[in-house]
Amino acid sequence: MKICLVTAFPPSGRQLNEYAFHIAQELQSNPMVDLTILGDELSDYRFATDRDGKPVSANGELPGFNVIRCWKFNHLGTPVRLLNTIRRLQPDVVWFNLVFSTFAAQDHPITAFAGLCTPALTRMIGCYTHVTLHHIIEHVDFSSFGVRQERLFRLGSNLATRTLLKANSVTVLLSGYHRTLMEKYSAENVVLGTHGIFAHCPTPPDFSKRGNPDQRIMAIGHWGTYKRLETLMEAFPRVALRVPNARLVIGGANHHTTPGYWESIREAHKSNSRINFLGYVPQDAIPELFATASVLVMPYDSATGSSGPAHQACEYGVPIVSADIPDFKVMATDEEMAISFYKTGDAADLADKLVELLLSPERQRTMAEQNFSAAVRMTMPSVVRNYMRWFELAKRKRAMGPFLAPSFRRWRRLHSRLASRHPFLDWSQAPERAANDGIATDGRSNGQGRSGFSDHGISWQPQPDEADFQTPADPDAARQRRHG
């Protein structure tokens, strides 16, 4: 199968580039897949800096990947360039890995919208198009982003969402997103998927590395917009007073719209020797960073989807303390993560939650084991396998289409004539089933109906009638029913 993956891709420093790397790595290991990555042009990433505040170099491609840098951030010509490349490659599947700001920042709304039209345009030229959409605007708190003219922005985002839904299929990663798209947009091509961890197999926690000698509180992300450090900086001195061996380790780059943010926080707290700022953390340093952390903290004001750092914490069996943001609560419930929630923006509550966890080795171990157990159920191979099943099913349906279409049209004409003569042959006149007979309110099968759809593809499972298992009190009556 020939797949084009449209995404920001390392050494790009833009959103979702790390997630795309792990998806691509798994696809690349499949001998049945011919993968081409349609990535963003590399530029000078002033917002991504190392521990000394120097911009991270983005020169050279990662070995082993076929990458075509055919689109540019904040460039209005992105759709045309992408379509020309896709038309030349003629792939079986074009897979878009997106957030709403993938192609442009919020101060370039027309360019951003044009980029988000690309999946629909790709489908129009005859390619099967799939979108993994990491957030939807209805669940974003704009007050954390400083968006001006919010009503106009939401109107444009609504139109962009409807345009994205013109792709053949769309995956979202939280059940709340799936429900919103089904209810608000009447979407019928949306599948609930799993974010997954960034590994073939999670790493069991080594508790001998934790609290030895420091209890490390770790925070990592792209800082400056809704991911902010002020609340954590206010909370940490309170934690340090009650946990003498506590140390705060902060890693990650600035968000591309807020260059210099984490450096300003470091400057304000440079006198505190128990706070370490790492800057951008390279991929090969991630395992040791998580393995030595006692807890991951997510001090966010808002969220834009399922959290990558939270899934990395599960991968290494690390407990999590997070702001009580609705998306994160849904994520914890959907994927059975162990997360301790504090009131968003409340430094005192955050300090209490951290101290409570750091002073309880038993609770740290319990939460770590639960998160590791969650990670085992959502490895990257299983996530990509589910995508491949959807793509293969779509490919076979397209291959069968020319043979099935004529007979289907004849059946529809026959059905229309019969329905006009007998009302019970018209489905709209048939007696209705109970609303909860076999299908839950969120669209998933509850196991009571005759067939259902799983989150990871179509799974038809016939269920036997209750009468097949019931022995009537009167055997003669049973024989009479069987023989008419």
Care to give the gist of this entry?
The protein is 39% helix and 15% strand. The protein has 484 residues and is α/β, with parallel strands linked by helices.
Describe what this molecule looks like in 3D.
It is a single chain. By secondary structure, the protein is of the alpha/beta class. The protein folds into 3 domains: 2-193, Rossmann fold, CATH 3.40.50.2000; 207-376, 3-Layer(aba) Sandwich (Rossmann fold), CATH 3.40.50; 432-484, no CATH class. The chain is 39% helix and 15% strand. It is built from 15 helices and 15 strands. The chain has helices at 17-28, 78-89, 109-116, 118-124, 150-164, 175-184, 230-242, 261-268, 286-291, 308-315, 326-335, 347-358, 361-376, 380-421, 475-482, and strands at 2-6, 34-40, 67-71, 93-98, 128-133, 169-172, 190-192, 215-220, 246-251, 275-279, 295-298, 320-323, 339-342, 452-454, 457-459. The strands form 3 sheets. The protein has a 7-stranded parallel beta sheet with strand order 3-2-1-4-5-6-7, with helices on both faces. Strands 10-9-8-11-12-13 form a 6-stranded parallel beta sheet, with helices on both faces. α7 (230-242) packs across α12 and α10 (308-315) packs across α13 (361-376). 40% of the residues are buried.
Total discrete domains: 3
Strand content: 5-15%
Shape-level CATH architecture of the largest domain: 3-Layer(aba) Sandwich
Q: Biggest sheet, in brief?
A: 7 strands, parallel
CATH class of the largest domain: Alpha Beta
Summed up, the helix count is 15
Strands across the major sheet, in which order?
3-2-1-4-5-6-7
Can you tell me the CATH topology of the largest domain? Rossmann fold
Shape from CA axes?
globular
Strand elements, count: 15
| CATH level 4 superfamily of the largest domain | Glycogen Phosphorylase B
Low-confidence stretches: 419-484
Q: In whole angstroms, how far apart are the ends? A: 53 Å
Helix-strand topology string:
EHEEHEHHEHEHEEHEHEHEHEHEHHHEEH
Percent in helix? 25-40%
Q: Radius of gyration over alpha carbons?
A: 26 Å
Average of pLDDT:
82
